[in-house]
Amino acid sequence: xxxxxxxxxxxxxxxxxxxxxxxxxxxxxxxxxxxxxxxxxxxxxxxxxxxxxxxxxxxxxxxxxxxxxxxxxxxxxxxxxxxxxxxxxxxxxxxxxxxxxxxxxxxxxxxxxxxxxxxxxx
Length: 122
Fold this sequence. Notes:
Elements: H1 11-32, H2 37-40, E1 43-44, H3 46-53, H4 57-65, E2 72-73, E3 78-81, H5 82-91, H6 97-121
């Protein structure tokens, strides 16, 4: 329903539509927040971490050896916190070409401003 076409007569219908949408959003929010803090701090073994990251087990062991992935060494096993792996993934996010271009342009502008200010001071 177009908000511009809501009239006094169609108000009950519009309210019903809003209530349906709110209920759907509440259900999705509950599904997203269904994990408990214990679930988020769940410890994973090497095979579980490999499955979670969609990598081969030997790749995980290589990353452990190079200290390229956050892990916990136990007495006989290596563990991973799921939250640590998620943060690690987010920290390794690569910028898009547009973000790189914007950053380069901002740095070039800052360099040009600094050069112009230096020139004016002479």
